[in-house]
Amino acid sequence: MKIYLFVFMAGVTAIFFSYVAGVRVGREKCRADVAGQSSAMQSQTIKIMGDVNAETFNRGVGDIRRVLREKYTIAE
What we know:
Elements: H1 2-58, H2 61-72
């Protein structure tokens, strides 16, 4: 009778530790995914900023003022 109890407790313990290990692996995968997404968003933001800065550098001040007036004035 004691051997069955020992085998049962060993099985329950193995299942418990497998569950805990699975949770940890899942959390690490989630953290890695979030870090990858964050890195991708940051590189995309830097690319957009570079494009905007290049466009601003290539335009004259008068052109920028004209575009802003056309876009942001109150229409009648």
